[in-house]
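If you are new to this repository, start here. Below is one unmodified record pulled from the training split, so you can see the exact layout before writing a loader.
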Amino acid sequence: MTWSVMFFVNSILLGVGLAMDAFSVSLANGLNEPLMKKRKMFGIAGVFAVFQTLMPMIGWICVHTIATYFTAFEKFIPWIALILLAFIGGKMLIEGIRKKDEEQKEVKLGFGSLILQGVATSIDALSVGFTIADYNWYMALCETVIIGVVTFGICVAGLLIGRKFGTKLSNKAQILGGVILIAIGLEIFITSFI
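And here is the target side for that same chain:
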């Protein structure tokens, strides 16, 4: 593969495609925490961007080193994403239902949950390492950085949209956020078998 305009266009489009799960989760996070500060929003988007950058690069490294082990692991990716997102979404859903009649307090996203979300939404990006296997290390790194930058922008947009509607939805936002996360996990799981 050589450097060309199409390389950059394809990298951006790949970034958009890979960022859709992270966008949806960002939307749910914004719904769940409508008073989120911009600094935290950039931190959350940054975590998603880092994972979306690292996962394809790890996949590329696996192809060039331990490809046989990675191929065996690939069939578990949808299961891992489903379990992680169902756990986080279920927790949000239960907390939202319990607090339905109580005074609704804003539930803040913890660092541990954020890392789980980052892994769950980017684990399918490991397989992108196979599609960029013919790139040299510099081109692979460039493509994964472009994916990360695109993911960052898309996640900030998701957080802003979620935050705006989270304020309007007030006590239903946490329940909706939990349902969205569970739905994303199911979508990843189901589409892997189609």
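Two things worth knowing about this chain: The helical segments are 5-32, 38-64, 67-74, 77-98, 111-122, 128-131, 137-169, 173-191. The mean pLDDT is 79.
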